[in-house]
């Protein structure tokens, strides 16, 4: 069985790492280059860099900052935010990204998934989905959680998979930053209907939450931000804990 992955996430706004609750009330969490370097040394399996206001502000991701982070890490690096066309993908891959995460642009132009997969390979294309549950229905959101769409989480994830996405990064907006655990029921359903890896995001507060995302939610990877940025959980200690729970993780 493939090892489960632990992935810290750098949410970037104005060149700084930030973290909020339910996608609002952002506070600064540190320098992205220094954080990336720290996580790479601490045993993270991958690093995700999301320019969280690029789509809303209708601009491109900060290429120079991506280059600086990439130069200081030695783990796979996923970059998202403000990616609208193949030229953006090429620019970020040249800057040091290994994978590209698309969210709003994919919903607006689903063909972009096909194009990235056919030009660069499915392994490069991560489709990120921000979704919120209301009355038992999961709806997808655009522009960093600002704009509700008519798309259903599960239908859209399946379509993205069929179009060539290599992974689905699902963030539950209901759980984001509140540290009460991941959306394990929705995660398990995604795992059941998809043939590609699912990354859990939104809700990590304790090591047990990661355990539950893997065992109950059937996630292939678990992403978190504030619990790592503010020192609540150390990745090396988290992996030791997961090992004791008989969950296959890579140890340094």
What topology does this entry show?
Blueprint: E1 5-13, E2 16-21, E3 24-30, H1 32-42, E4 47-51, H2 63-70, E5 77-80, H3 86-94, E6 99-102, H4 104-108, H5 111-120, E7 125-134, E8 137-142, E9 147-152, H6 153-163, E10 167-172, H7 184-193, E11 198-201, H8 207-215, E12 221-224, H9 226-229, H10 235-244
Parallel strand pairs: 1-4, 1-12, 4-5, 5-6, 6-7, 7-10, 10-11, 11-12
Antiparallel strand pairs: 1-2, 2-3, 7-8, 8-9
Helix pairs in contact: 1-2
Walk me through the structure:
Helix content is 35%, strand content 28%. It has a single domain (5-244), classed as Aldolase class I (TIM Barrel, Alpha-Beta Barrel), CATH 3.20.20. The protein is globular and about 45 Å long. Residues 23-27 have low confidence and may be disordered. It has helices at 32-42, 63-70, 86-94, 104-108, 111-120, 153-163, 184-193, 207-215, 226-229, 235-244, and strands spanning 5-13, 16-21, 24-30, 47-51, 77-80, 99-102, 125-134, 137-142, 147-152, 167-172, 198-201, 221-224. The protein has ten helices and twelve strands. The longest helix has 11 residues, at 32-42. With 252 residues, it is α/β, with parallel strands linked by helices. Helix 1 (32-42) packs parallel to helix 2. The protein starts with a strand and ends in an 8-residue tail after the last helix. An eight-stranded parallel barrel has the order 1-4-5-6-7-10-11-12, surrounded by six helices.
């Amino acid at each position: 069985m493939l090892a489960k992955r632990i992935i810290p996430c750098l949410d970037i706004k104005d060149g700084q790492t930030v973290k909020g609750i339910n996608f609002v009330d952002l506070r600064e969490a540190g320098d992205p280059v220094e954080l990336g370097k720290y996580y790479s040394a601490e045993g993270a399996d991958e690093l995700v860099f999301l320019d969280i206001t690029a789509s809303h502000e209708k601009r491109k991701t900060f290429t120079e900052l991506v280059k600086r982070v990439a130069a200081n890490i030695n783990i796979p690096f996923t970059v998202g935010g403000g990616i609208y066309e193949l030229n953006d993908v090429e620019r970020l891959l040249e800057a040091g990204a290994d994978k590209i995460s698309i969210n709003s642009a994919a919903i607006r132009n689903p063909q972009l998934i096909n194009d990235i997969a056919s030009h660069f390979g499915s392994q490069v294309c991560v489709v990120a989905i921000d979704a919120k549950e209301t009355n038992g229905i999961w709806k997808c959101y655009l522009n960093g959680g600002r704009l509700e769409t008519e798309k259903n989480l599960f239908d859209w994830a399946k379509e993205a998979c069929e179009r060539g996405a290599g992974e689905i990064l699902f963030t539950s907006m209901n759980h984001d930053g509140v540290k009460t655990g991941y959306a394990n029921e929705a995660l398990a359903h995604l795992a059941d209907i998809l043939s590609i890896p699912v990354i859990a995001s939104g809700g990590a507060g304790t090591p047990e939450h990661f355990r539950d995302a893997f065992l109950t939610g059937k996630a292939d990877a678990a992403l978190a931000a504030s619990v790592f940025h503010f020192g609540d959980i150390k990745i090396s200690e988290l992996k030791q804990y997961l090992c004791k729970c008989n969950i296959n993780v890579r140890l340094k």
